[in-house]
Amino acid sequence: TGWALECENGARFLTNTGYFSSPPAVALVARTYNLLPISTFANGMQDMNLAGGLRVFSRSDVGTHPVYGAILTAWTPEIGFPTTDTYSVAGTASVACDFENGKIPWAPTGGTVVTWTNG
Prior knowledge:
Helix content: 10-25%
Number of helices: 2
Largest sheet: 5 strands, antiparallel
């Protein structure tokens, strides 16, 4: 429940918990998923109002990617920003997201496992 004002340099959202601004790429994700921000955009990240959690990561060198659910729960700053959106792993019921320093796959039977690129 809320309102958004689209502007040239982003969007300003009015939510039940106050006003939040999002840069254009993050605002596009919010509109695509029909979500509202629940935090300030800071350090390249902004949380959205999805049960189970959804955070939009946005940096010019890696792009803008939403991360949600169990993959977001397993995320730590050490693995870095996502470099892909969440994608289906071919031939399985699993999904994964690639990050600057590794990958976090999720499987319905095995949960998440953080795989580091270097180590």
